[in-house]
Design goal:
single chain; 382 residues; alpha+beta; A middle domain of Talin 1; 3 domains; seven-stranded mixed sheet; five-stranded antiparallel sheet; 13 helices; 14 strands; globular
Length: 382
């Protein structure tokens, strides 16, 4: 009877690495790099949670993340990029301590204790780190080596493929994660803004936001983003997008790298298309409250030959036709998959092909709400 009071410990999957990462001529980063790749695959492709894999795996992963970030840009970069996530910090601390990297662990402790430390203190912390980091790979390799399973290189791909196969629970977890990804996309004002502007300007398919260049507008440096679009004629073009004057502006080209006069400014605006950011922000807030990204994922899951992974961007449409009723979400998919509209009225939700003007997936709103409640229960949303 007494043993029934205790839950059996969950079996964790052992880390395995190809034998070549432990060869005499292997690079010093090879072992921990292989573990990092294994964790990425387990998380991203296999939908494993941290408590389903060896406890050393997330520790090594986050310890190496801390090490790499500080080496690349100091503690200020680690602080910014990690957003001081508590789980990241805890795993990194445990990994460093377990590997015997006590001084690096102490540096991380100092940052955790005073996360808002000023530049001078950060630089001093960087100096402490770089005075002690030279044996990082030696120590972390010595800690990891007896804790990993070594697999012949030729057998490693098949073993990894088998490990990443989704079972029922992890398959559902993967789909839920993809649905959350769509919800994050529909709440992203930049994606929503440029997708809407690109559609209104060209009628084409928005393909994402690329890193761009800089221009000076009335003395302020402005980022000029690359906005790739597939036009209605099937041709690819890259437009210039910028956030300026509280608007999302899309133009075929920048006439000048410096805009200094009102005449130049008006010419820039007249050469393209723009939308007020406040309108997009309102749409993103409405999409967040109504969880339109999750509903889109539910419809995509029921459609044949489509999934959430095909979606580049989605946004709540600005529909100026007052005779129409309901919510309209424009869904831009990869390559030749086409564009779709999620249409919600009083009784049902539909996924409609923009090209064929036919519904390819339909759910009653009652079924949608039931599915959302089940999603919340699975993901412990309260």
């Amino acid at each position: 009877m007494l043993r029934n009071l205790f839950k059996s410990r969950q079996t964790r999957h052992e880390i395995f690495v190809p034998a070549s990462v432990l060869a005499q001529d292997a690079k010093e980063y090879a072992l921990v790099g292989s573990v990092v790749s294994w964790v990425n695959a387990a998380r991203d492709q296999g939908a494993y949670s941290a408590d389903e894999i060896a406890e050393e795996a997330p520790q090594a992963y986050n310890a190496d993340y801390y090490y790499a970030q500080v080496c690349n840009g100091g503690h200020s970069q680690f602080r910014h990029n990690s957003q001081m996530d508590p789980m990241t910090l805890a795993y990194a601390q445990n990994g460093l301590k377990n590997a015997g990297l006590t001084e690096l662990a102490s540096c991380l402790d100092a940052l955790i204790e005073t996360p808002e430390m000023e530049s001078a203190a950060l630089e001093a912390l960087d100096s402490r780190f770089f005075a002690a980091y030279s044996d990082y790979h030696t120590r972390i390799n010595a800690w990891l080596q007896p804790r990993v399973q070594v697999v012949p290189d030729g057998k490693y791909p098949a073993k990894l493929e088998q490990f990443l196969k989704l079972d029922g629970a992890r398959g559902q977890r993967f789909r839920d994660r993809e649905a959350l990804g769509l919800q994050a996309k529909i709440e992203n004002a930049q994606l929503a803004g440029y997708a809407q502007v690109a559609y209104e300007m060209t009628g084409g398919q928005f393909l994402g936001v690329r890193p761009g260049s800089f221009a000076t507008v009335f003395g302020q440096q402005t980022v000029i983003w690359g906005i790739p679009v597939r036009t209605e004629q099937g041709e690819d073009a890259v437009f210039n997008g910028m956030d300026v004057a509280e608007r999302f502006l899309l133009v075929p080209k920048m006439p000048k790298e410096t805009v200094e006069t009102e005449e130049q400014f008006l010419a820039l605006f007249n050469s393209g298309h723009n939308l007020k950011k406040e309108v997009i922000d309102q749409n993103c807030e409405l999409a967040r409250n109504e969880r339109l990204g999750l509903i889109a994922a539910l419809l995509l899951e029921t459609a044949s030959d489509l999934s959430s992974q095909d979606v580049v961007a989605l946004h709540l449409m600005i529909d100026k036709n007052l005779e129409r009723k309901g919510r309209y979400v424009m869904i831009h998919c990869k390559g030749s998959r086409g564009n779709f509209i999620l249409r919600i009225d009083d009784t049902r939700s539909m996924l409609v092909s923009l090209e064929e003007q036919t519904a390819i997936a339909v759910l009653s709103n009652r079924d949608v709400q039931k599915a959302l409640r089940q999603f919340d229960a699975r993901n412990r949303v309260h």
